[in-house]
Hints:
It is built from no helices and eleven strands. By secondary structure, it is mainly beta.
Amino acid sequence: xxxxxxxxxxxxxxxxxxxxxxxxxxxxxxxxxxxxxxxxxxxxxxxxxxxxxxxxxxxxxxxxxxxxxxxxxxxxxxxxxxxxxxxxxxxxxxxxxxxxxxxxxxxxxxxxxx
Length: 114
């Protein structure tokens, strides 16, 4: 079992930045992959970024060049640095962990105003 708690969401103007954090209840060193997904009203949940145990990253085309995912194994925390935010980035952002099972956080709201 892995509990995930997100923080860092909020309201920001277009062009601004936010850093989301996801704190895990256990060591993330051995977790196969951790990622961030988002879901806007009326849309399906979609992958934003993912980082594997060996540090390999993957990004959605819509956020490439604006978003960076990173992990701090010592703090059991994964971060999502988002820059040059756009109104279409508005969504609930969920932390995800894939190990023996798949685990989700409760989500944090990101709202980007135009």
